[in-house]
Design brief:
The complex is a heterodimer.
Chain A lengths: L1 H23 L20 H35 L10 H34 L7 H33 L3 H19 L7 E2 L3 H14 L6 E4 L10 E4 L6 E5 L9 H16 L2 H24 L11 H38 L2 H15 L7 H7 L5 H20 L2
Parallel strand pairs in A: 2-4
Antiparallel strand pairs in A: 1-2, 3-4
Helix pairs in contact in A: 1-8, 2-3, 2-9, 3-4, 4-5, 5-8, 6-7, 7-9, 7-10, 8-9, 9-12, 10-12
Chain B lengths: L7 E4 L7 H5 L1 H4 L1 H28 L4 H21 L18 E4 L8 H5 L1 H15 L5 E4 L6 E4 L6 H17 L4 H21 L11 H4 L12 E4 L8 H5 L1 H33 L4 H21 L18 E4 L8 H5 L1 H33 L4 H21 L20 H4 L3
Antiparallel strand pairs in B: 1-2, 3-4, 5-6
Classes of the chains: A mainly alpha, B mainly alpha.
Chain lengths: ~400, ~425
């Protein structure tokens, strides 16, 4: 028992050290002091009120679907085993059936709130998805989840049958490998086309040089028939790296200067190897996460038994919820660095502030959400924090220029 | 399983065909097409009168009932004639007892008024299935022109009957004899369509029974095929949850089967070369093909709700309630091996026609099983027939057996039955 505790303590210490080192690889200058920003100085009361009332319902929907998911999985963990008699597939196949049924039940119980969520977004002109398309699209998304789930369960249960309680040690590298593979291929799974705007292309080339990322294709994803939300992302590893901009950012609502900030931000992600670091964090979470799942499923004979699959689903969802504040903090940490990289290369805090200001009426994001929302839901710095960083950069650059 | 259906198919056909009438079959049927068109118009109005009369009295009017019976019978005769299920030129009156493919119809009986009131809507599933099996039933067509609904008569034919008639035309011209498998399949189509039409036209209040075994109960069974279904057919229980998500639950299997299918095609090519040279398929490749075929059957049976349990992923024998018995590798004729794909084309035509019936079986069973938590015996057996034929076709293509697929809806008999006793 003592040896076991000592081992766990050593593993926890090693994990903490690895996490600390990984955290330290993502930095904004330690001397940077973010000034206090009053949201009322940048947004009208009407804008703040609209964002606040929109977000309130969105938050309720999020927590509603989360609680329903946990309730459905708890019920499934309690009674779902009975469906194993509907299988003639052997232990692993039966586990797959139970896993899929668990997901399917969650889908069913969440569907009403998802439809309400769609209505809410349509009501605010943020979504352009029709209800039938949403239902069919969701159905196909569920099909994709089923395939992935079966693949994951085949790995986990196969390893659990081979290595019994220590399956998680070998399963974690397998999932990390899959995460790497997915990070590499994900840009190829999105239909995009090259950015046609010559001036933006030129700007992107200049930013690439400044950030030292080499040539990165700037792609456009046509998404205007699905949503009006502006967004962009950096994706891929090595040769699959690219910056993807939603065409909703190019519909005239954003100036060239603002788009320059966006491209600078996404290139900043690539310059600071955030996707690799994402995989690194995933790896750090995978080992303890799978270990805890292995411990939880011991109640049902371990994951070599199909009866343990419903419990495993519940354990995973609960662990994900518990880890959410930490994951959001990590994400915000990297997003802040990307913002900093963008400010460093564009040297244009005015356009950055203008861009962040424009996000509020176009996305109905709250500029300064409550602490609870901030911890649980925000995976980017708040808009007020982003404006504050732009202001801080302005002062930082000025003082750097004035210093002898 | 069920009491005998009041609309009974009678098969007295001897499989002999006159080449001359076969060759001109469609042209010879032109007067019948005109006649049934006119008759169908009359039936349309008569059926409305009959519907009102039955709603009021609870029993169809005797005269109208006779009129409908003659129409149903005539539709069956004509369907059988066009589909080469029977040889003689049919009469225009739909009289009972005069034609080798006939239907026995009941006397008018008391019918539930609710069932009569909603008859058309209740009959829709059976009519959908009729559109896939074909035969002499009524059909509601939507033309490309403007989506206009039209009512047409019994001369029209659907998938299975058309396929059997088309293939039977060549076979009958060549041999002067209709292959029994195609004849039986065509007869089943005619019989089911007759039951569906009789139900729609208030000749009976018994719902059509899609069970091919019950429909052809009096017909001799074909010889046993080396590729046959085994297992427990009587478990009709269906889990509502797995039924509701059936398509999604099958997707991992479909992905897996697709990947396996690529390897199967490569193995098939290799096996084809080996069989051409050695005269016998290679054992490992044969085993590989058998496992794939079994897996395919399990997945299709699950997908189409022919069975209830979730299947495994390895095509193992004896683990699934609907399983496939396959032969050991045996010597095969090199000519037949060389031209296997071409030889399989007629069987693939029938299989494709049956897939339509299988699709509708699955769709209808889905609704039924969600409501009742069980499958129907008739649809289950029709689906099993389609799956068995599909497996026989694939086994033939995959060189697992040299035996040509048998299109008869009836399971093969281990010992020769009357019709085959003379020829062996």
């Amino acid at each position: 028992m003592t040896r076991r505790l000592a081992f766990l303590a050593a593993a926890a210490a090693a994990w903490g050290a690895a996490a600390w080192f990984l955290w330290q690889t993502t930095v904004v200058p330690s001397s940077l002091h973010l000034p206090h920003v009053d949201q009322h100085a940048f947004f009208t009361d009407a804008q703040i009120h609209a964002a606040s009332s929109f977000s309130r319902v969105e938050d309720l929907l999020f927590w509603g679907t989360t609680l329903l998911q946990i309730a459905a999985l708890a019920a499934f963990a309690r009674w779902g085993v009975r469906w194993s008699r509907e299988s003639a597939a052997g232990p692993i196949g039966t586990g797959m059936l139970l896993g899929m049924l668990g997901f399917a039940l969650v889908w069913v119980v969440q569907l009403p709130l998802e439809v309400v969520g769609l209505w809410w977004q349509r009501h605010h002109h943020l979504s352009r998805v029709s209800y039938p398309s949403f239902l069919f699209g969701d159905w196909f998304a569920l099909a994709g989840e089923f395939v992935f789930l079966c693949f994951a369960l085949a790995i986990v249960m196969g390893l659990a049958r081979r290595f019994r309680d220590t399956w998680w040690i070998s399963a974690a590298p397998a999932f990390i490998g899959l995460a790497l593979l997915f990070a590499f291929v994900s840009p190829y799974l999105i239909t995009t086309h090259r950015l046609q705007n010559a001036s933006l292309q030129t700007i992107a080339s200049q930013l690439e040089k400044k950030e030292g990322v080499g040539h990165v294709p700037i792609e456009v994803e046509d998404i205007h028939d699905v949503t009006s939300l502006p967004n962009s992302e950096a994706a891929g590893l090595g040769p699959s790296r690219r910056v993807i901009i939603f065409d909703t950012m190019l519909d005239g609502r954003f100036t060239t200067g603002e788009l320059k900030v966006v491209i600078g931000h996404e290139l900043g992600h690539l310059a600071r190897h955030h996707i690799w670091k994402d995989v690194g964090w995933y790896a750090l979470f995978a080992f303890p996460g799978l270990f805890l799942v292995a411990q939880a499923t011991k109640l049902r004979g371990g994951l070599r038994e199909p009866a343990a699959v419903p419990l495993a689903l519940l354990a995973i969802v609960v662990l994900q919820l518990l880890a959410l504040p930490l994951q959001n903090a990590i994400s915000r940490h990297m997003e802040a660095e990307a913002d900093w990289m963008s400010l460093r290369t564009t040297r244009d805090p005015k356009d950055a502030i203008q861009l962040f200001r424009r996000f509020v009426p176009t996305t109905l994001d709250e500029p300064d959400p409550s602490t609870f929302d901030y911890l649980m839901l925000e995976d980017h710095p708040t808009i007020v924090q982003r404006i504050a960083m732009a202001e801080a950069w302005r002062r930082y650059a000025t003082s750097a220029a004035q210093s002898p | 399983m069920q009491p005998e259906h009041p609309v009974r198919l009678v098969v007295r056909d001897d499989l002999e065909r006159r080449r001359l009438t076969v060759f001109f079959r469609l042209l010879l049927a032109i007067p019948h097409f005109v006649w049934i068109f006119l008759w169908s118009i009359a039936v349309f109005f008569a059926s409305i009168a009959n519907w009102v009369a039955t709603l009021v009295r609870g029993t169809p009017a005797q005269g109208l009932h006779r009129f409908m019976c003659a129409y149903v019978r005539y539709g069956a005769h004509l369907g059988a004639y066009i589909g080469l299920v029977a040889n003689p030129y049919p009469a225009f009156t739909g009289e009972e007892g005069g034609y080798p493919i006939d239907v026995r119809l009941p006397e008018p009986t008391e019918q539930g008024r609710w069932s009569v009131f909603f008859r058309f809507f209740i009959a829709l599933p059976a009519l959908l299935l009729t559109s896939a099996t074909g035969g002499g039933g009524p059909r509601f067509n939507y033309g490309l022109g403007g989506g206009r609904k039209s009512y047409s008569g019994g001369a029209e034919s659907g998938g299975l009957l058309v396929a059997c008639g088309f293939l039977g035309w060549f076979a009958s011209l060549a041999h002067g004899r209709m292959p029994k498998g195609l004849r039986d399949a065509g007869a089943y189509s005619v019989g089911y369509s007759a039951q569906a039409t009789a139900y729609l036209l208030l000749v009976t209040d018994r719902y059509p029974n899609a069970d091919p075994t019950a429909m052809l109960a009096d017909v001799d069974r074909p010889p046993e095929h080396p590729v046959r279904l085994v297992g427990d057919p009587h478990d009709l229980r269906r889990s509502r949850v797995t039924v509701f998500f059936r398509l999604l639950l099958t997707i991992p299997h479909i992905v897996w089967l697709t990947l396996w299918g690529v390897a199967f095609v490569l193995a098939l090519i290799a096996n084809w070369v080996v069989t051409l040279f050695r005269g016998t398929p290679a054992h490992p490749l044969h085993r590989f093909s058998c496992a794939y075929l079994r897996q395919r059957l399990h997945v299709l049976a699950f997908l189409t709700l022919t069975t209830n349990p979730f299947p495994g992923f390895v095509g193992e024998m004896g683990r699934y309630p609907l399983d496939l018995e396959l032969p050991e590798p045996a010597r095969q004729n090199r000519w037949k091996t060389g031209f296997r794909i071409l030889l399989a084309v007629p069987a693939l035509v029938v299989s494709s026609a049956l897939s339509g019936a299988l699709f509708w079986c699955a769709v209808l069973t889905w609704f039924y099983a969600l409501a009742r938590g069980s499958a129907t015996w008739g649809l289950r057996n029709l689906a099993a027939y389609a799956l068995r034929y599909d497996a026989q076709v694939n086994a033939y293509v995959a060189l697992v057996t040299e035996a040509y697929p048998h299109a008869s809806p009836l399971e093969g008999a281990p010992t020769p039955q009357h019709e085959f006793a003379d020829t062996t």
